[in-house]
């Protein structure tokens, strides 16, 4: 691997290290319905012409990992520019932010909250009418999957799902090898146990050897090296993540979600009877209830403001390459991502406002 490639890889590893702290814990935790949307039944008697920002400062939690910090700065910039709101970014930590939102309805917005990690507090906040979800934070892709580089799909058009791997196992076998390789994550990560059990549940253990890296850097270095050589590689990975964009990785269709098999996959000594996609994690734009009642236009905006995963991967890659601050990435998005954020304002793709706004 060249020194330049190693330099770039290290930048991506450092940029994504904090994000990994938010990877799914794979526990089957019940989260109450989070499809709060913008205006609920209790909002039918809203003022005829409410102030767009409710006359109050809107505090947005800026979490410590890259994607959440970028989203906080994007929403702050758009609320200032498009709604003329007074906005403050406040440091955030998931558990403390959610607890504060549940008790004081401050901060008003947490753009990337993994509520299945704090399901008890989140469910309590919704029962108490303190907070609810405006929309999913991310759309258009799985948070976790097995990935292959795009050129592997191009060279093997019949390979689109994990169910196709048995027919294509030789693609991932080293030259002269009798077994293919499936790259996992470090052994002390939960995804290592899940990937191994998932392969067994899919019947792939007869053909695939699980390659377990010693640490995150080794994992990413091996992946980057394979892509640099345009070698076929099959790996566990997650998003949003800069490396997904940088290496042009494509997720395989992981099939349907089976709760029983997924729960078994998370246990070291349990072998599932069949396959399942990774257990879902609930990631939402969490919003204090007063935003829905006092600032319905802002609530409507947030209800449309789900970020495509591919776009966030692109922004994270740009941030790592440019060594940019979250605020700079937000400004870059406002310039380059107009086709994404203009519809958040309720505009049609042509740029015209829909009737009735």
What's the layout of helices and strands?
Elements: H1 3-20, E1 58-62, H2 66-83, E2 87-91, H3 94-104, E3 109-114, H4 119-127, E4 131-136, E5 138-139, E6 144-149, H5 150-155, E7 180-183, H6 190-201, E8 208-211, H7 216-228, E9 235-238, H8 242-246, E10 249-251, H9 259-265, E11 283-288, H10 289-294, H11 296-303, E12 307-308, H12 309-322, H13 326-336, H14 338-344
Parallel strand pairs: 1-2, 5-12, 7-8
Antiparallel strand pairs: 3-11, 4-11, 6-9, 6-10
Give an overview in words:
The longest helix is centred in the first third of the chain and has 18 residues, at 3-20. The chain is an alpha/beta fold and 357 residues long. It has a 3-stranded antiparallel β-sheet, sandwiched between helices. A 3-stranded antiparallel β-sheet has the order 9-6-10. A two-stranded parallel ribbon has the order 1-2. Helix 1 packs across helix 12 and helix 2 packs across helix 13. The chain folds into 2 domains: 31-138 and 282-344, D-Maltodextrin-Binding Protein, domain 2 (3-Layer(aba) Sandwich); 144-265, Glycine betaine-binding periplasmic protein, domain 2 (D-Maltodextrin-Binding Protein, domain 2), CATH 3.40.190.100. The protein has helices at residues 3-20, 66-83, 94-104, 119-127, 150-155, 190-201, 216-228, 242-246, 259-265, 289-294, 296-303, 309-322, 326-336, 338-344; strands spanning 58-62, 87-91, 109-114, 131-136, 138-139, 144-149, 180-183, 208-211, 235-238, 249-251, 283-288, 307-308. The radius of gyration is 22 Å and the shape is globular. It has 14 helices and 12 strands.
